[in-house]
């Protein structure tokens, strides 16, 4: 990343220099090799898992098409983590071990940029999924008229464009970048919390109505729809929780760790940051497992795809 100092001259971002510095990384070659092995293993699982999910979501399911587009967008961003970001992390680790600092700097810059875009897309998509689930509950029969594939594609493209713009913002203004990151992340988080809170309050009220024997027969058809709705809802909630748990250590640690790295050049803080970054990328391998666990149709489709692959290979 290139920023400008107070005199207006360009300078290399201190974080990129620190992460490609013998002073910080000396004595950590064994740990970096372990990180590289970690990224190789989970790059493979992210690629295989998310490819299977994308194949499964192409097939006919009870999911409304716009909802499928959102889940496919999330799986696609996770697939890109496995194809691009984690291999870059492996190259970065090997460049540090062999002290190829120019390669290290370029790859670290590339990994940061692409990884940040994909993280932004994932956060935005999860926020959109929460809005989608709330609208499905509130709009009823009007849901299919209002939430269309075209509108969802527009939202998805907007997430990609805005994430790219935010990642490029430090070239012009580091202060503007910090404001944009905090604002957009907070907006996505607050939107998801608001939507899921409203959803669970609404479902709780509905459940209390269904308990009334006089209404039970009249609400039987609605209850079937609510049961199907809950399955998709809980899939989205579990994916949201998994992302939060994987991102939270980095969010809590990063500001303090970067400050300490600049001040003391401590290898311990370097390892702490690398560990939390690895946990973020692990989320891309975890999501396909959650889809298969919580979505029966997706699980069955993945099984059928694997059976066909095994049969064809034999």
Which features would summarize this protein structure in a list?
single chain; about 325 residues; mainly alpha; two-stranded antiparallel sheet; 2 strands; disordered N terminus
Describe the structure.
The radius of gyration is 22 Å and the shape is globular. With 314 residues, the protein is mainly α. Helix content is 85%, strand content 2%. It has a two-stranded antiparallel sheet. A hairpin with a 5-residue loop joins strand 1 and strand 2. The N terminus is likely disordered. The chain has twelve helices and two strands; from the N terminus they run E-E-H-H-H-H-H-H-H-H-H-H-H-H. The longest helix is centred in the last third of the chain and has 45 residues.
List the helices and strands and how they pair.
Layout: E1 2-4, E2 10-12, H1 14-19, H2 22-25, H3 29-58, H4 65-97, H5 101-139, H6 143-146, H7 149-168, H8 174-210, H9 213-216, H10 220-264, H11 267-294, H12 296-313
Antiparallel strand pairs: 1-2
Helix pairs in contact: 3-4, 3-11, 3-12, 4-5, 4-7, 4-11, 5-7, 5-8, 5-10, 10-11, 11-12
């Amino acid at each position: 990343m290139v920023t400008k100092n107070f005199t207006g001259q360009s300078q290399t971002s201190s974080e990129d220099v620190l992460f490609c510095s013998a002073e910080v990384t000396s004595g950590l070659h064994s740990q970096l090799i372990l990180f590289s092995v970690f990224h190789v293993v989970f790059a493979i699982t992210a690629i295989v898992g998310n490819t299977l999910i994308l194949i499964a979501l192409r097939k006919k399911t009870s999911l409304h098409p716009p909802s499928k587009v959102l889940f496919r967008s999330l799986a696609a961003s996770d697939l890109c983590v496995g194809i691009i970001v984690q291999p870059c992390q492996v190259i970065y680790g090997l460049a540090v071990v062999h002290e190829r600092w120019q390669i290290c700097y370029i790859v670290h810059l590339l990994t940061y940029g692409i990884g940040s875009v994909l993280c932004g897309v994932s956060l935005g998509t999860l926020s959109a999924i929460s809005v989608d689930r709330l609208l499905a509950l509130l709009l009823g029969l009007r849901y299919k008229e209002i939430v269309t594939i075209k509108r969802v594609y527009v939202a998805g493209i907007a997430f990609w464009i805005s994430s790219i713009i935010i990642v490029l913002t430090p070239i012009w203004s580091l202060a503007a970048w910090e404001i944009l990151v905090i604002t957009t992340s907070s907006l996505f988080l607050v939107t998801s919390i608001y939507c899921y809170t409203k959803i669970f309050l609404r479902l709780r009220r509905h459940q209390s109505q269904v308990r009334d024997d006089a209404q039970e027969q009249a609400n039987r058809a609605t209850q079937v729809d609510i049961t199907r709705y809950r399955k998709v809802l809980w899939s989205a909630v579990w994916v949201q929780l998994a992302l939060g748990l994987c991102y939270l250590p980095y969010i809590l640690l990063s500001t303090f760790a970067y400050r300490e790295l600049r001040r003391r050049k401590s290898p311990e803080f370097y390892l702490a940051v690398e560990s939390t970054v690895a946990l973020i990328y692990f989320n891309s391998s975890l999501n396909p497992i959650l889809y298969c666990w919580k979505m029966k149709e997706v699980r069955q489709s993945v099984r059928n795809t694997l059976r066909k692959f095994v049969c064809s290979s034999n």
